[in-house]
């Protein structure tokens, strides 16, 4: 070490001895360099879940390069990326729709090419209804509004389609198909009765004949098999009305030593014989 270097070190150490604690702490803070943070671009923020341009997963960095390099909208790669973005947008909006945000979701969907993605829209509606049947009226309201503006989408849901489903279910009836037809009529019967009352009556008569005359299994039969023990001619039918005044017999709830007990036993024996 040279003499000049030694004097420089000594001067620095001596000057540091005479510094106040506040100055030394301030100097230490100034010596710390701020940590650099990389701010992602808006394109990177929107592509955290990478769409698959060619059916294969691409990391976000590689996908960013692909998106920035695609400028020609007529290429297949560009159209695939647009399709994936449209799919993510439609499915995301359908998963968030409810009664309170329905007008907002409708306005947002109209900003995208839902005519091109009407298949995605139909599949998304079906999947959302299966996942949350409670929101079926909300989905129906959404479809009705979009159908008023874009009838191509309304072709997917029509009363004739429901009638064709009922005909198909009851053409070769089975336990499952009849049960499905009954559930379908429960959901759509009121609407069908307004537009097609005669056709709906024909379905009711078909179901009635199937339930009474066919060999379909009945989950709730009037009398279970093996318990129909009394012939119809021997049955005693009571006529009781809910409006008739009831006759109370409280003595039947208690033990009694009446002379009429033996008479009643004799009458009972005569009836059994």
TrEMBL record:
* Biased composition, class Low complexity, residue ranges: 1-15
Q: Where is the composition biased (Basic residues)?
A: 26-35
Q: Where is the composition biased (Polar residues)?
A: 36-50
GO CC terms, sorted? catalytic step 2 spliceosome
One GO BP annotation here? mRNA splicing, via spliceosome
Stretch list, region Disordered: 1-55, 215-273
What Gene Ontology molecular-function terms does this entry list? RNA binding
Database matches in InterPro entries: ARM-type_fold, CWC22_splicing_factor
- Protein name stated in the entry: MIF4G domain-containing protein
